Amino acid sequence: MNKGKKISPSSKAMRQVGPDLRRITLSGEFLQIFGLGVIIIGHSGIGKSEIALELISRGHRFISDDVVEVRKRKDGNLTGNAPSLSRYFMEIRGLGIINIKEIFGLQAISRQSKVGLVIRLKRWQRGDEYDRLGLEFPEDFEILGVKIPQLIVPVAPGRTIALLIEVACKVHLLRKKGYHASHEIVKRLDKALA
Questions:
Q1: Residue 76: which CATH number?
Q2: Which pTM does this prediction carry?
Q3: Residue 26 sits in which domain range?
Q4: CB count, 10 Å around CB of 109?
Q5: 3-class SS at 142?
Q6: What is the pLDDT of residues 105-164, one digit of tens each?
Q7: Are 27 and 13 in contact (CB under 8 A)?
Q8: Which of 3, 87, 121, 168 is most buried, judging by how many CB atoms fall within 10 Å of its CB?
């Protein structure tokens, strides 16, 4: 959890771990949200740890803070976990280091999870365009040659980011089942205009 060696998620979010091409270290938070392994990435200071803490308080499971070790399994799936040194610990500016297992109990933690989604937190900027209909999908996030679905969540004062991440996970799970709300509204509009 050495902040001086943190890897920027914008360009070099990952680095190889030794000569092993099946392992990588990623800078971000890792949680299980509705059973889905979610890596939350974003620039330093955007609030990733605080958002993760809020998600844990809502009943989701904590895996790792700041550093995620990702491994590619023989079946091609990715699993992530915390480094053993920092397992269960989280750094919160103003509070210091806290132990999630001691504060929230065993039900609030998981040792590892399959990686299923990447949420990129991006500081909201006036003039930037954001998808408002859900018709466009951002590029997948590639880890060890595996494409992982990615959603971008703009961060601005007054937005409840933990709730938006929960909804983003539900939307992703519904899309995996074939349901797209944006497609449904387009069909309704087409029918109403016909």
A1: 3.40.50.300
A2: 0.84
A3: 3-193
A4: 20
A5: strand
A6: 999 999 999 999 999 999 988 877 777 667 667 789 999 999 999 999 999 988 999 999
A7: yes
A8: 121
